[in-house]
Amino acid sequence: MTNDRSLFKSCHVFRGAEAPANSDHRLVIATMHQLHPMRTAKVQQSKCLDVETLAQSDELADKYNITVTNSFQALGSLPEDV
User: Fold this and answer.
1) DSSP string covering 27-73, please?
2) Rounded to whole angstroms, how far apart are CA atoms 35 and 40?
3) 37 close to 46: Cβ distance less than 8 angstroms
4) Structure confidence by residue, pLDDT tens digits, 39-78
5) DSSP code at position 81
6) Exposure of 1 by Cβ count < 10 A (0-12 exposed, 13-18 middle, 19+ buried)?
7) Cβ-proximal residues to 33 (8 Å cutoff; 6+ apart), any chain
8) Are 27 and 11 in contact (CB under 8 A)?
9) Which residues contact 61 (CB under 8 A, 6 or more apart)?
10) How do residues 5-30 score in pLDDT, each as one tens digit?
11) Hey, is 5 helix, strand or coil?
12) Would you put residue 68 in left (φ > 0), alpha (ψ -120 to 50) or beta?
C-alpha cells in the first residue's frame, strides 16, 4: 500500500488468524492518518453586466457588440475538430 510509515497510527499483526490451511499468512490491522484532499483554486465568478446601462447607452452597446463579435471571430479561425 505505502512505504511511508508516518501515515500509520498503529499496526498490529495477529498470528493464528489464518484458515486451517496452515499457511504462512498473517492478519494485519493498521490505523492510518486521514489525508486531507488538496485544495483546489476557487472558480472565478463571471462578471455581472449592468443590462440597464447597456440598454440606455448606444455608445456602450456598440462597444459591447464589437467586443463580443471580435471574440467570436477568434473562435471561428479554429479548426473544426478541436
Assistant:
1) EEEEEEPPPPPPPPPPPPPPPPP-HHHHHH-HHHHHHHHHHHHHHHH
2) 15
3) no
4) 777 777 777 777 888 788 888 888 888 988 888 777 777 6
5) T
6) exposed
7) 6, 7, 8, 9
8) no
9) 54, 55
10) 778 888 888 876 556 666 777 788 88
11) helix
12) alpha
Amino acid letter for position 64:
Y
Cβ neighbours of residue 38 closer than 8 Å, sequence gap 6 or more: none
Handedness of CA 44, 50, 55, 61 (dihedral sign): negative
Q: Show the cell assigned to 60.
A: 456602450
| Band of residue 1 on the pLDDT scale cut at 50, 70, 90 | low
Q: Looking at residue 72, what is its pLDDT? A: 79
The contacts of residue 23 (CB under 8 Å, 6+ apart) are none
